[in-house]
Amino acid sequence: MPYFIIFLVFLSVIATALPMIPSYKWWIRIFDFPRAQVTVIAFLSIILTLIFCIDSPLLLYTLIPLSIGVISYQSIKMIRYTPFYPIRSPKANLPIPDNSFSVLLANVKMDNDQYGELKEIIRKNDPDLVLLNEVDDKWLRELQELDRDFRYSIKYPQDNTYGMTLYSKLKLIDTKVNFLVDNTIPSIHTKVELRSGKIINFHGLHPEPPKPGSSTYERDTELLIVGKRIKNEDEPAILAGDLNDVAWSATSELFQKRSGLWDPREGRGFFNTYNVFVPFFRYPLDHFFYTKDFLLISLSKLAKFGSDHFPILIKLEFDPKARTKID
C-alpha cells in the first residue's frame, strides 16, 4: 500500500506541475483539465497516508505536505468557479423582455442519433438562438423542422466533427463563416437584432482540442483572435461554443484579461458539460463569454440527449447602461 500511496502523490504532483510549463504541447496542456480530479486524488492520498503510513515518519512528513500543496494550488486555480468566490457578472433584476434573449449551446456529437431528444430539449426551453457544434449533413436533415420556428440560420455542416449551425428567431445581419486558423475549422460571426431593435455581435467557435499528434497553438490563437476583435470593436458581444478548454487554463485566463469579457460561472459554479458518460471526469468545456453590456438572467445545464456533452442555456438582458454602472 505505501508504494501505491507514493504513486498517487507523485501523480498528483506531476499533474499539478506540468500545466505550469509555458508550452503548446498537447500532453502538457491536457493537464489543465482535471484540476478537481487531481484535488480528489490528493485528498485520498492524505487519508491513505494517515491510515497506512502512520508508523513511518519519513513518508508521513513527506507525502502529506506534498498533497496539501497540491490541494492548495489546485483550489486557488478553481476557486473563481465556486460559490466561495464573489460573483462578478451582475444579474438582471427586472429584465426588459424586448432586450432579453436566450442562447442554447450544444455539441451534438456527430455520430449521435438521438435527434428527437435534442429537438424536444429545444422545444421545451424555447431559446431565441441555438448554436450546435459537430453538425454534419445528416444532422441538418434530421433538424429540418427547426426551420419553421427559427426563421434565420447559418449552416456549415462538415463530416470532420467541426461542422457548425446557428438557428435564430432573431434577425441575423452581416453573417460570416470564417476560418481563422485552419481551413477545416469554421467559426460563425454575425450581428443579431434584438426585439427592441438593438444590435449585438455574436461569435460561435469550436476550436480543436488537445490530442495526440497536435498542439494547442491553433486553439489558443483562435480564441485570442476573437477576443482581440471583440475588444477592438468595443460593441456589445457574446462568444459561445465548445472551446475544448477549461475556464481556469492559462489560455482562458489570458483571453479574459485581454478581452475584458464576463464569464457568468465565476462565483456560481463549474457547470461541467463534458463528459456525460464518465461522471468523475467532467469539465466545463462549453462556454459563454460576454461584454459588460449584458446582465445575466439565468445559466443552466440541460438534460443529456445522447451526446457526450450536456447542452447549456443562458438567458441575458442587454442593458446599454450596464457597462457604465460597473465602470
Automatic annotation (TrEMBL):
Residues 106-309 form the Endonuclease/exonuclease/phosphatase domain. The chain crosses the membrane at residues 41-71. Signal peptide: none annotated. It comes from the Bacteria. Keywords: Endonuclease, Hydrolase, Membrane, Nuclease, Transmembrane, Transmembrane helix. Coiled coil: none annotated. GO terms for molecular function: endonuclease activity. This is Endonuclease/exonuclease/phosphatase family protein. It comes from Litoribacter ruber. The lineage of its organism: Bacteria, Pseudomonadati, Bacteroidota, Cytophagia, Cytophagales.
